[in-house]
Amino acid sequence: MLLDVDRVTKVYRGGVKANDEITLSIDAGEVFGLLGPNGAGKTTLIAQIIGLAAPTSGTITIGGVDVVLRPNVAREACSYQPQSSVPIDGLTPLQAIELAGRIRGGDKTRVRARARELVEALDLTEWQSKAATLSGGVSRLVAFCMAAVQPGRIVILDEPTNDVDPLRRKLMWQQVRVLADAGSAVLLVTHNVLEAERCVDRLAIIDGGRVVGAGTPASLKGDLGSWLHLELFLEPGVDAPVLPPFMERPTTNGRRLIGEVSPSSVDEAVRWATRMREEGAAEEFSLGPATLEDVYVRHVKSTNGSHDHEMAEVS
């Protein structure tokens, strides 16, 4: 494996344990998702992988090199898009992307061609030469390009789609796949479960600083057995209805009401959801196989039922 994280623990002053014996590995050519709610310890782990913080215990190796002992190797190997905005004051997006590529040692001609390729692929042409304040979504796309223009062996993307519109999100995910197909290991840090399901090859769910589930999306969903996914889109301004007893592990996010239904309750679930629609409480509903979101809710709720779960936007 290109990146190996072995029993990494990070304890801050005061005894706060941000990471608790985290173990995971990522290979070249793979998109690996690190999922979890805010405060789960994802960004703390990333800081240790890229050499900005040292673990209290455990080891991190890249290509067999211990980067805790040699953090310069981590900084050389990793391209990083942080969760926070990347300031490019005084530069146009194209200049900022090219500068990032040159700083990472890229050939001037190749970097220039790759920068324009990314700008076109992400539909950013109208902003490429504007040295002005960018919207949040465009700023995130430019930051992605700065990480992707001269990618390292490992490309780390921390919540890359925040504020990005649905169309350009799809374009970004295509470019994430391009990075992996070209040989980079891509570590995607997110709480957007639906998008992760479409993109990742494998993933780990982290909560309370610990890995609480890991595998491929298919294997994790398979652990749920025959449970089905029931989802209602409530009418605007309508309070959530009283939940029926057959609906297990209900979760709400805005107008979305989601729960699990056993095969023996399918007919009852369809009748109830149909009635909710006929009475004007719900716009529509769907009932189908379990999703990665169901896996996420099960694992995270089982470790801490008090979480306010953040789930993917519907696009």
Written overview of the protein:
- Helix content is 34%, strand content 27%.
- The chain has helices at residues 42-49, 71-77, 93-103, 108-121, 136-148, 166-181, 193-199, 217-222, 266-278, 292-303, and strands at residues 3-11, 17-26, 31-35, 57-62, 65-66, 78-81, 154-158, 185-190, 202-207, 210-215, 228-234, 248-253, 256-261, 282-289.
- With 315 residues, the chain is an alpha/beta fold.
- It starts with a strand and ends in a 12-residue tail after the last helix.
- It folds into 2 domains: 3-218, Rossmann fold (3-Layer(aba) Sandwich), CATH 3.40.50; 226-289, Alpha-Beta Plaits.
- The model is unreliable at 305-315 (pLDDT under 50).
- The strands form 3 sheets. A 6-stranded mixed beta sheet has the order 6-7-8-3-9-10, sandwiched between helices.
- 41% of the residues are buried.
- The chain is built from 10 helices and 14 strands.
- The radius of gyration is 21 Å and the shape is globular.
Keywords:
6-stranded mixed β-sheet, alpha/beta, disordered C terminus, Rossmann fold, 2 domains, 4-stranded antiparallel β-sheet, Alpha-Beta Plaits
Uncertain stretches of 5 or more adjacent residues: 305-315
Order of strands, widest sheet: 6-7-8-3-9-10
Helix content: 25-40%
Q: Which architecture of the largest domain would the CATH scheme give at its second level?
A: 3-Layer(aba) Sandwich
Number of helices: 10
Termini gap: 34 Å
Write down the Rg: 21 Å
Order of helices and strands: EEEHEEHEHHHEHEHEEHEEEHEH
**Average predicted confidence as pLDDT:** 91
